[in-house]
From TrEMBL:
Protein name, UniProt field: Erythroferrone
One Gene Ontology cellular component: extracellular space
Residues covered by the C1q domain: 1-129
Cited PANTHER family: ADIPOLIN, ERYTHROFERRONE
GO biological process, one term: positive regulation of D-glucose import
Similarity remark: Belongs to the adipolin/erythroferrone family.
MF GO annotations: hormone activity
Compartments (UniProt record): Secreted
Name of the gene: Erfe
Coiled-coil region list: none
Alphabetical keyword list: Disulfide bond, Glycoprotein, Hormone, Hydroxylation, Secreted, Signal
InterPro entries documented for this protein: Adipolin/Erythroferrone-rel, C1q_dom, Tumour_necrosis_fac-like_dom
Upper lineage: Eukaryota, Metazoa, Chordata, Craniata, Vertebrata
């Protein structure tokens, strides 16, 4: 039997994903494909005159919370000044040892508070050992 989903429409198979911590722990060593799709709402508009560099938003999937080069997947998005809702995805393959975990991080340099909306997702699939 599979664990019951935490909410309607959610698919969850296997024991590696901890919904409380947001971490996926590898049950066996191997290559895993990870995908995170975040629906993000900017809660207040940027003030005019703020530098454009403040519109950058990075989403990362990191192993063991270490987000240095070669142990993460990363996407960088430039937020448009006119919108309030953004969808940002990051996907790729990482090697995890058994017991290591991966989780999603958001580096917000956007200059305004952001909220991750329901319907966002994070998945991991074992490709091979």
């Amino acid at each position: 039997p599979h664990p019951q989903p935490a909410r309607e429409g959610m698919f969850h198979r296997g024991s590696g994903l901890n919904l409380t911590s947001g971490q996926y722990t590898a049950p066996v060593a191997g290559f895993y494909t990870f995908t995170a799709t975040l629906h993000i709402v900017r809660r207040e508009q940027q003030r005019k005159g703020q530098p454009c560099r403040g519109n950058r938003l990075r989403v990362l999937i990191c192993v063991q919370s270490h987000c240095q080069h070669n142990s993460n997947l990363e996407t960088v998005s430039w937020l448009e000044s006119g919108g309030d809702l953004f969808t940002i995805s990051v996907t790729g393959v990482l090697y995890l040892q058994a017991g290591q975990y991966a989780s999603v991080f958001v580096d917000n340099a956007a200059g305004s508070p952001l909220t991750i909306q329901s319907g966002s997702d994070f998945s991991a699939i074992l490709l091979g050992v």
